[in-house]
Specification:
171 residues; mainly alpha; 80% helix; elongated
């Protein structure tokens, strides 16, 4: 197997496309629920726990980043990135099936762990794949993807909630 420094440009673009897609998905999951919350609370109840739906996700995500960052330095990035994708998707499916606000909060925490893994590894991948001269361009692109997901998340979440169901914001 060739080392990372010997990757072809095509391979680097494929690696970054997958990384950017994962980053987009995890960033969208932070904001997609915000415009759906009034309907979610109307359906599931639990107004007193309203803020924990977003806070649980962010708390799990934020605490996961430094831990997974160190672990991925020791054991490699791919297993943690793949586990992050799995947890994010699994948590999303569970969120869509929630029957109570407490379940939704628990499942959002699972999503948050996955998102934290993805975000931690995504920025490290740039350092692994590109030379210092190329890293700025890719970090800027990643930041742009994160920003666009932050704008599109509430729009998509609101549209799905209005035209289908709040559950589709997670599916």
């Amino acid at each position: 197997m060739r080392s990372i420094s010997q990757m072809s440009t095509r391979t680097k673009v494929i690696v970054m496309a997958g990384t950017l897609l994962g980053m987009f998905t995890s960033a969208m999951d932070q904001t997609v629920v915000s415009t759906s919350m009034p309907r979610i609370i109307a359906d599931l109840g639990g107004f007193g726990l309203f803020s924990w739906v977003g806070t649980g996700f962010m708390l799990a995500s934020t605490t996961t980043v430094p831990i997974v960052g160190k672990l991925s330095d020791l054991y490699g990035r791919k297993p943690f990135y793949m586990l992050g994708i799995f947890l994010l998707l699994f948590g999303s499916a569970l969120c869509g099936m929630s029957q109570s606000v407490e379940q939704l909060i628990a499942f959002r925490i699972i999503q948050g762990f996955g998102a934290g893994m993805i975000m931690s590894v995504a920025f490290a991948i740039i350092g692994d794949v590109f030379t210092p001269a190329e890293r700025g361009k890719w970090a800027g692109l990643m930041s742009g993807v994160f920003a666009s997901a932050s704008v599109l998340g509430p729009l998509i979440g609101g549209t799905l909630t209005d035209h289908a169901s709040w559950r589709w914001a997670f599916y």
